[in-house]
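Subject: sequence -> structure tokens, single chain

Hey, anyone have a minute? Need the predicted structure for the following. Not urgent.
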Amino acid sequence: MLRRPASLTTLSVPFLTRFAPSPNGDLHLGHALSAITGFGLAARENGRFLLRIEDIDIQRTREEHVAHIVEDLRWLGVTWEEPILRQSTRFDAYRRAAASLLDRGLLYPCFATRSEIDAAVAIDPTGTDPDGAPLYPGLCKNLAPAETERRRANAEPFCLRLDMDRALKVAHAMSGGRSLTFREWTAEPGTTPDIIAADPARWGDAIIVRKDTPASYHLAVVLDDAMQGITHVVRGRDLYAATDLHRLLQVLLGLPEPIYHHHRLLLDADGRKLSKSLRHTSLRAMRAAGATPAAIRTTLRNASV
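Reply:
Had a minute. Here:
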């Protein structure tokens, strides 16, 4: 943490936030906490609240889950402005942004498979990123242009990775030599935000465009927040470290900087974050078992973190 600015408060800026779930499973209590937190802050700040469906993962998206998300939120008493934005309608925008980064030499194609990366890391460990994944060992970072074109001509699948070293230098120049930071409500939302030092380098050469879709979460979320005019990003603490990378992309793409609030997480009895992959009980199942919105809100207030 660096310092608190003297003049920036929520009284001097509008308030527009969003809840942005992925429709690859039903919502659980952790999602309820995030939606209710953002919706409640918007109401308290006389602001606006949006719902966005993050469905860039076409293979895992299920329309029944989209319908369930809408039903569950309405049952909780969470409302939003129409229309609901779906990321699957934004692929052209993601492609244009990625092309601009690629043209500036900030992205490069990576053809390496997961097994090839794992094998390289096993021989020469690279450390891990904030999510615990091995840092990319640079297998394709310095491919000759002719080799890159040959592999692309052969239709080998590739993702686009950020050249972190170059990106940091460009962002430093674009920021007039200032350090990269972000604004965070670390205490009570609505107070003056803290200025936090960002450290994108700990993510290494992160994937910005996936092999199977024209964006990663990181690229899509910063572009969509900017397009929708989001002024305050309210999301779980598990995405706190990702803000470093998001701020870097915002600078590189000339996008506005929102204020962030990363709220507490709900944990299960084993200390694990609630998640769809671990099959934690869904709101839909709780509703079918007789839970009420009031009971859900009481549970959230009393839940351990």
